[in-house]
Amino acid sequence: MTAHSTPSSMGQFAHMGTYESVADIFTAFRPVMHAMAAAAGPGCEVVLHDLSAPDPDLSHTIAAIENGHVTGREVGGPSSSLGIGVLHNQGADHNAFGYRGFTSDGRQLRCSSVYMRNSAGRIIAALCVNFDVSTIEQARALLDGLLPKAPSNSHDQPNEFFGRDLVAMMDAMVTEAIREIGKPVGQMSRDDRIAVLTRLDQQGALQMRKGVESIAARLGISRVTAYSYLEEARNQDAEEAAGYGSAAYGLPN
Fold first, then answer.
1. Pick from 163, 189, 214: which residue ends a domain?
2. What was the pLDDT predicted at 88?
3. pLDDT averaged per 10 residues in sequence order, the chain, 253 residues
4. In 55-154, where do the E strands start and end?
């Protein structure tokens, strides 16, 4: 870890320290990763992602991994769904702890992620811990006959999706967005489909290669229609934001 003054661009992240290369991070944290995985057992996956490239290929970010069988990934494997949004907004504090994740086969994980920056404030790596709680859920189900309910503030916490590749990961994201609507695609209205597209846009899924085409196919609409819905939703969000800003300052709108 580099010990030097922190530029103003780091702001709120100054207390975390900086690293000048992923190699430095690997050297410092590889033994820690092994220790964490050994202590927590085979259900605890620990992953180091290399995000240092100017335009990282999210299909191949894993630089080191322990207990990769938890999500079915290995060195050279992909990021999760959260990686897309993180790189899209480097200025925010993306560190998150104890949030829910889901494997491509539906197992629930308890996850934490810490993002590491260089002296310029740019995110260059992520250290993530993903604990498989599916066996705990089964034990709890045997005790009380109920699956664990989502916490009341679950909408304030991120959901993370994992897959063997980006296609599987995006498919899981689309499935969850459709599930949140609460009805089959065939029964969805125009507004329902716009809501799904908006949700996936916020999660960064549309930035993935052929993201719009894949999502449109799942929603049973054309690529052109999907773009039209998306533009409408974005314009509405922009208008609402502008209206709020005007109201906040007592300006006419």
1. 163
2. 78
3. 39 65 94 96 96 90 96 92 80 91 86 94 94 86 64 59 76 86 86 91 80 89 91 81 55 49
4. 62-66, 96-102, 108-117, 123-132
Closest CA to 178 of 199, 164, 201: 199
Q: Which of 163, 178, 193 is the last residue of a domain?
A: 163
In whole angstroms, what is the distance from residue 246 CA to residue 105 CA? 46
Question: Are 33 and 151 part of one and the same domain?
Answer: yes
Furthest CA-CA distance within the chain: 61
How many domains in the chain?
A: 2
d(CA 8, CA 3): 15
Q: Take residue 216 and report the two structure tokens written for it.
A: 């449109």
Give me the sign of the Cα torsion angle 92, 93, 95, 97: negative
- C-alpha distances (whole Å) from 183 to each of 33, 38, 100, 102 are 41, 42, 23, 21
Domain region containing 207: 165-253
154 plus 194 within the same structural domain: no
Instruction: Specify the pLDDT at position 117.
Output: 94
pLDDT given at position 45:
97
What confidence score (pLDDT) does residue 98 get? 94
Backbone phi, then psi, for 53, in 5-degree steps?
Answer: -65, 150
Q: Given this model, what pLDDT does residue 249 score?
A: 46
User: In 10 A of CB 108, how many CB atoms?
Assistant: 17
